[in-house]
Design goal:
Blueprint lengths: L5 E3 L2 E3 L3 E3 L15 H12 L4 E8 L11 E2 L6 H13 L3 E7 L7 H4 L4 E2 L13 E2 L2 H21 L3 E6 L4 H6 L14 H4 L1 H14 L5 E6 L10 H13 L4 E5 L21 H10 L4 E3 L6 H9 L5 E4 L1 H5 L3 H6 L14 H8 L27 E5 L3 H12 L3 E5 L10 H17 L4 E2 L6 H7 L3 E4 L3 E3 L15 H6 L6 E5 L3 H11 L4 E5 L11 H13 L3 E3 L3 E6 L2 E5 L5 E5 L2 E4 L3 E3 L2 H9 L3 E3 L9 H13 L2
Parallel strand pairs: 3-4, 3-13, 4-5, 4-6, 6-9, 7-8, 9-10, 10-11, 11-12, 12-13, 14-15, 14-17, 15-16, 17-27, 19-20, 19-25, 20-21
Antiparallel strand pairs: 1-2, 18-26, 22-23, 23-24
Length: about 625
């Protein structure tokens, strides 16, 4: 069923797999299509998806989400858009593009212009009060959407998707959270759909009755006073009545991004029940999305009648060949997205091109690793993800690579993240005939036996010591010791609220301990990608983990920990055991070894935060290219 033909309006798809739209930060500074953009989408089309939906594309020259956003706001963008649509189609998929306006979910810092919206209500994360649009201005923006749809058809795209989800401009009209008007564009639910109805009507007038128009919605905004599934079922029926050929069901908005781009803490197919509800309310096709990374699970969604098409964004970032592998029953070969959200961190918080922890090619499809002019014997010391990536790139370039580490098993810190990354690195190394030698004492004697021409080494890290009086005498454990040993009984106090502290807290609470986190920052989870962090904080609160933020630990005496709260008052807390999560520092051992050996080397940068694992791997790969 997943690979049966399917139609959206008049458009026939070869299968029911849809590459869901994701921003990429790949277009040039004017928002135009370039080589990297073309190759990125062509690669996903070549992997076997039936429909490729190109990322959100700005319809208005004065309002957009980021400087790197793709734009469809003027005819000067047509040559690049035409080239993009053709590349997708030539690689076997149908081409769609998503048209978009951010409304209040932009910033004057980005555009130089005040944001606009249905009502002068600031987005909680942006914090800027938008200007309320008058009716003539609304009509003008309706025209901008319709013109963008026509432009997409002229460029050769097979269909267009309106971005009416995630709290952006169209969604702002639909939602009672952001639309407080009392005219023909606001008030009751039907009037709040007027902007959506008008852009559908005006687009139809320009492109005709047979050009497919898809509407993406947030079926639930997961915000007090926002859209709920009961409202969006009505909205979906209205959109269908006024010309939408399919409904693409997502969820969330800027204040609830963990529902839009679900981290690994959310279960597989988290949004599918919402798609099912919408499907029961409409007759047009429904696209389900949200952590669907297994083709067998996707098949079950279709067979059970819970959706008509399956949207996969991050899964096709991790493995663009997922559709092809599934069709050829090579399920075991699929590289499965682990929802680490490193892609989103790079994109939205670093504003750098999209990439993937599991797929170094993602966003770099134009990069071809050059062969080394003189192949060398390269010794890699360490088995962290970045060390393995350096080994992989060096091997691809033709060097003879050997990996050594003194650990008994690969994993190290943040095993919850690396367990998804490491196996794929090991598979790539095996294909290059590169062995990983564990339980090897990494000293000068080993280097003397290996006789490398060049060394790449990852620094050895250890938990930092904060110097709190009484901590050592109390037998404080490190997060690593907590994860490796039997969980301490009774009440446990964790000093520090970073990623390691949270991982230790989760481990212990599930084994019956009572856990309190004493955090010196304003919120727990620092060091994690923000979407994952927010979801983790909510999860820990539900599980009963007590979090006391903005405190200073003064001392530990026997079973009592003294701390100063955010008001400056001293307090005490009793605990059966104490865990200290004060971060990490280098032991200095690898640095000393490299200096002692006198062999050309590269010391990889210490990766002290899990959100930086992807960047550490990219840095390691670049170092390997210079060998």
């Amino acid at each position: 069923m997943l690979f049966s033909e399917f139609k959206i309006g008049s458009l026939k798809l070869k299968n029911r797999i849809v590459f869901a739209p994701m921003g990429t930060c790949l277009p040039d500074e004017q928002g135009r299509v370039n080589d990297r953009t073309v190759e990125y989408y062509a690669r996903r089309a070549a992997g076997g998806a039936g429909l490729i939906i190109v990322e959100f594309s700005a319809v208005d020259k004065n309002n957009y989400s980021a400087s790197w956003q793709l734009k469809i706001n003027d005819d000067d963008k047509l040559p690049g858009l035409t080239r993009l649509a053709k590349a997708i189609q030539e690689n076997g998929a149908k081409a769609c593009i998503q048209v978009h306006h951010p409304g209040r979910q932009s910033s004057k810092r980005v555009t130089g212009n005040q944001t606009v919206a249905p009502s002068p209500i600031p987005d909680l994360l942006i914090g800027e009060t938008p200007r309320e649009l008058d009716v003539p201005e609304i009509h003008e923006l309706e025209d901008r959407f319709a013109e963008a749809v026509l432009r997409a058809r002229k460029a050769g795209f097979d269909c267009v998707e309106f971005h009416g989800a995630h709290g952006y401009f169209i969604c702002q009209w639909l939602s009672p959270l952001s639309n407080k008007r009392d005219d023909e564009y606001g008030g009751d639910l039907f009037r709040r759909t007027r902007f959506a109805r008008e852009i559908l009507r005006k687009s139809r007038e320009l492109v005709g009755p047979d050009y497919p128009l898809i509407f993406r919605i947030s079926a639930d905004e997961f915000a007090d006073g926002g859209l709920t599934i009961d409202q969006t079922k009505e909205i979906a029926a209205i959109l269908q009545e006024h010309g939408a050929d399919a409904i693409h069901v997502s969820a969330g908005q800027f204040g609830a991004m963990q529902f839009t781009v679900q981290p690994m803490l959310k279960p597989r197919g988290f949004l599918v029940p919402l798609a099912t509800e919408i499907k029961r309310a409409v007759k047009v096709p429904v696209i389900a999305v949200g952590r669907i990374n297994d083709p067998r699970y996707a098949e079950s969604i279709l067979k059970e009648g819970n959706a008509d098409l399956i949207g996969m964004g991050r899964p096709l970032l991790a493995d663009p060949d997922l559709p092809k592998k599934a069709r050829e029953e090579r399920i075991s070969e699929i590289v499965r997205c682990i929802a680490c959200n490193a892609c989103m961190y790079k994109l939205f918080y670093r504003e750098s091109p999209i990439s993937c922890s599991l797929n170094p090619e993602a966003g770099n499809e134009t990069l071809v690793e050059s062969r080394a002019q003189k192949p060398l014997k390269v010794m890699v010391i360490g088995s962290s993800a970045d060390a393995l990536e350096a080994a992989r790139v060096a091997g691809v370039r033709g060097h003879k690579v050997e990996i050594y580490d003194q650990v008994e098993k690969i994993g190290g810190r943040w095993a919850w993240l690396q367990r998804g990354i490491i196996p794929h690195k090991l598979k790539a190394l095996k294909e290059l005939s590169i062995d990983v030698n564990l339980c090897s004492k990494t000293d000068s004697a080993l280097v003397g036996r290996v006789k490398p021409d060049f060394i790449v080494a990852a620094p050895l890290m250890k938990p930092a010591e904060p110097g709190i009086p009484g901590l050592e005498e109390a037998g404080a454990l490190s997060p690593e010791e907590v994860l490796e040993r039997e969980t301490p009984p009774g009440k446990v106090v964790i000093m520090g609220g970073d990623h390691a502290a949270c991982e230790a807290a989760e481990h212990m609470i599930h084994r019956g301990a009572q856990v309190t986190i004493l955090n010196d920052r304003s919120r727990a989870g620092n060091g994690l990608e923000p979407i994952t962090r927010n979801a983790l904080i909510e999860k820990m609160a539900r599980e009963g983990i007590e979090m006391i933020n903005k405190v200073e630990v003064i001392s530990v005496v026997d079973d009592t920990t003294k701390y100063r709260n955010k008001q400056g008052k001293e307090e005490e807390i009793y605990a059966d055991a104490v865990v200290c999560a004060a971060g990490y520092v280098s032991t200095g051992e690898r640095e000393a070894l490299l200096e002692e050996c006198g062999i050309p080397y590269t010391l990889l940068e210490p990766c002290i935060e899990p959100r930086l694992i992807l960047e550490a791997m990219e840095t390691a790969a670049e170092a390997a290219r210079k060998i």
